[in-house]
């Protein structure tokens, strides 16, 4: 089942196209990760899908409706977005920031009803930040702040959550913490998760579906086993890698790699030494 689709999408900055004639369907109730080298259009695609930036041509459909013509509140009731660098929450408490997620459901007066308060409390509980409710966001660690932003997205009560590099600037432990939380939300709550990730091993481990991009195009889609291959690494990243199987998860994992140019140079040097 597909609730979110893009058809013949063209997006650019200052009349320079980044994405051209791209079409994609996002599987419902699965975790989809977008992977690819820097500048290939991953974040641009996510921003176009969520209306953060306009697209020049094509269409994005959300539940069959053109997202470009939908009211902002209607989109926000169905889809939450966590950008790569969220706006500063200076001075706000955790509870106040999470409550902003209820904006799409509020009337003109903007007052929180008991139903809103219950959802906010639930969002903080499920993300394990309820103990920080009265602390300011500024005083939290990077991983804790990321959980707060995810809680705000959950408070929107959307079935679809999109995240642009949610593990950026986090150490290994906090990265794992955030990705396990997203996995839990998918498995237990049935949320559709779409995220941009740089770490291909993390993407393979936590995703049901991968989109591999190069030069503004999706060149391969499918399960981690179908996408994370030596050929994909060569085509997308220009690296020569070895793929194994993670003994804990059974998912594919890149266990070692070299730049193709470096490997070719190394092989040439070996030939020279052998000839001497």
TrEMBL record:
It is found in: Cell membrane. It is a peripheral membrane protein. The keyword Phosphoprotein does not apply. Keywords: ATP-binding, Cell membrane, Ion transport, Iron, Iron transport, Membrane, Nucleotide-binding, Transport. Signal peptide: none annotated. It comes from Virgibacillus chiguensis. One of its GO terms (cellular component) is plasma membrane. One of its GO terms (biological process) is iron ion transport. Pfam families: ABC_tran. This is Iron complex transport system ATP-binding protein. It comes from the Bacteria.
